[in-house]
Amino acid sequence: MQTKNLSAKTKTSPKKYNSREISLRILYGIEEEGLQASDGIDFYCGENKTSNLDRRFITELVNGTTKLRRRIDFGIQVFLKEKLEKLLGAEELSLEHGQLKVAAIFRRDINNTIFGGPVIGGKILADSLIKIVRGGAEIGQGKLIELQSGKERVKEVVVGQECGIKFAGKVAVEIGDTVICYTVERKERKL
Predict the structure, then answer these.
(1) How far is CA 79 from CA 33, 75, 76, in A?
(2) pLDDT tens for residues 53-70?
(3) pLDDT tens digit string along 146-189?
(4) Domain count, the chain
(5) Does residue 97 share a domain with residue 56?
(6) Residue 66 is part of which domain span?
């Protein structure tokens, strides 16, 4: 059926084409009519009685253009996927690690507070974020700058141990407050 379309077009125009024009007609046929490259090459080269050298040139040009078009399509897909993933942004996951009950406040500055108390759940990690909870409601957040246990800097303190925390934040921490230690992980969303 595709060959009939090609022959109908060539009957109306008996002109002989050079190899570049043949290549363009084949590519046009592939794009517009869904022809196979090999069918188009066979038809046009047979109609125009091309030499083997011209046939090889036409075959390389048609196949090369088709491969190039696939590469361009793939490149565009990759580019668009990257751009769309950037538009999605990252998802932030908050992971709670432990809780501390404030038993004493040792020092207060404008932006820092040093306090201590027992760990009542999980573990407290150095360089984590902190939520201050009073009466069941969160009253503020900040950053854990330094963590000490037994007058030594440590990386973590577990349930049942006591520790001291240097807290950076503008929240006025009070005795009896609950401190929740957490970290935030950013996870890039993918398509």
Answers:
(1) 28, 6, 5
(2) 566 666 666 666 666 667
(3) 999 988 999 999 999 999 999 998 888 999 999 999 999 888 77
(4) 2
(5) no
(6) 2-88
